[in-house]
Amino acid sequence: MKPTLLRALLPLALTLPLAAAQASEPYRTLTLQAGNQAGLRGFEGVVEAQRQTVLAAQVPGAIVEIAVKVGDRVKAGQLLIRLDARAAEQGAQASAAQAQAVKAQLALAQRDFERQQQLRAQGFISQGALDQAEAQFKASSAQLQAQAAALEAARTQTGFHRVTAPYDGVVAEVPVSLGDMAMPGRALVTVFDPRALRVTASVPQQLRLPDAAALQVEIPALGQRLNPTRVQRLPLADAGSQTQAVRLELPESAAQPGQFARLWVPQEQAAAPTRLWVPQAALVRRAELRAVYVLDPKGQPQLRQLRLGPVQGDQVEVLAGLSAGERVVLEPQRAAKGAK
């Protein structure tokens, strides 16, 4: 063989064994294991008020008094805001005067009816005259009842110009100022009950929660952990995140609505779900497809579509598509070349 041809074939001869070795090199894989980590598992949440009321006026009117400010503690029935009620009060006074006039007419009609009864008994008047006097008395009585109802309605209308606290609580917001025009439905004051608070958090749908006594709610702003008094799992789930909201009622504390909270769940066998996790680097993303390569019994990579859940760091939870014990290829690009 010529020396030039030998020099040309020598690099090829050296690369063929290397390529064969690379082809026969096994894939780097991860064997999925189903298990539960010991300790506590946290979920973010927020403090809410079980009773929080946005108060508005039932009638229009100019605001002439604001009796509270944000942060004030109020008692049930305490005045919060007063509107200009002069027109309503004048209407109530007019209704009261009309009621007095009708009451006087009724007294006159009653005396006339009693006289007519006496005259009829003596035979001085006809039955028709007596019936007419009786009808006048009954009409005056009905008119007085109607006027009394109108007077009560006018007084009630006057009361609508006072916005009072529905229960003992704390003023959370006063978004109006003196002189503003209050309209029906416009928020004037927000009040909440500080003795009835809860934390709302989102947890995986498959998470089995233990009793309230085994749970802890942390309020970082206060540096304290509390045991909820009651746990409620809402019936609706979020299809996008595959989570479900839970509400945890708190004992009386200094927490405030809107504060960040964290729910801590013990990772015990009876309470924690079986979860499978894969590295995000092992995922194959093609449009909306999310998949991984899984080795079959012969060691050949097969593409498997997945349904994924929450992401924690470089790991993503597998909700459907994989089982414990299967081997996931950690080199998806290399597995794609060797897949059947």
UniProtKB/TrEMBL annotation:
Family named by the database record: Belongs to the membrane fusion protein (MFP) (TC 8.A.1) family.
Protein name from the UniProt record: Efflux RND transporter periplasmic adaptor subunit
SUPFAM superfamilies with a match to the protein in the record: HlyD-like secretion proteins
Domain Multidrug resistance protein MdtA-like alpha-helical hairpin intervals: 92-157
Pfam families per UniProt: BSH_RND, HH_MFP_RND, RND-MFP_C
Annotated organism of origin: Inhella proteolytica
Membrane spanning residue stretches: none
Superkingdom of the source species: Bacteria
